[in-house]
Amino acid sequence: GAGPVAEATQKEMSAFELVVESKFVVKYANYIKVSTEMLDDISFLEAEIDRELIGNVLEKVDQDCFNGGGGGQLEGILTAGTPFGAGSFANSITGANLVDLLTVVMAQMEGDFFYKASAIFLNPIDLAKLRVTKSTQAEYVDRLMVTAGTMSLDGVPIHTSSNIAQNKYAVCDMSQI
Asked: How far apart are CA 133 and CA 127, in angstroms?
């Protein structure tokens, strides 16, 4: 109902529906046994905890963020997200590549769902393929930019995770998660 109105006239009312939903907090934990000798070298023990324990927990959280099936674990982006459908773009792009696919997904996200892509997630192998994507004139695609080691497509940063299978991707509006 938003729109221009004259001074001192009735405003349009907006309405929306709130859906009550509950989610359980998922707790991740890990532990190691420590010998008395290890306690003599606290700096080593601290480094091991940082490297092993925290690394193990973060790896499992990353895995579940993309592939979790809910039911006691995180609901994964790839398992719960909206699958891609070519729609009006079907068979309309000659020589389509990954840049084209991601561009279409971002356009559909904004056009169909009113969400603006803020992150793209790819397998590291797919990112490497994207880095070497060239136009038909054998020039690198100028819409792909690398700033401080992070690649972006049309300003949307591209991140990698080994927990995304090759030839899979996630395009997300992170403000909605």
From this structure: 10
Global pTM reads: 0.77
Buried b (16+ CB within 10 A) or exposed e, 49-85: eeeeeeeeeeebeebbbbbbeeeebbebbbeeeeeee
The angle subtended at Cα 12 by Cα 11 and Cα 13, nearest 5°, is 115
Q: Residues 26-73: pLDDT tens digits? A: 888 888 888 888 889 999 888 988 888 899 999 999 999 999 887 777
Counting Cβ atoms within 10 Å, is residue 7 exposed (0-12), middle (13-18) or buried (19+)? exposed
130 to each of 107, 123, 149, how far by Cα in Å?
19, 11, 14
**CA pair distance 104, 142, nearest whole angstrom:** 17
Sequence letter at residue 156: V
DSSP code of residue 69: B
Judged by DSSP in three states, 134 sits in strand
Phi-psi map region of 155: left, alpha, beta (phi>0 left; psi -120 to 50 alpha): left
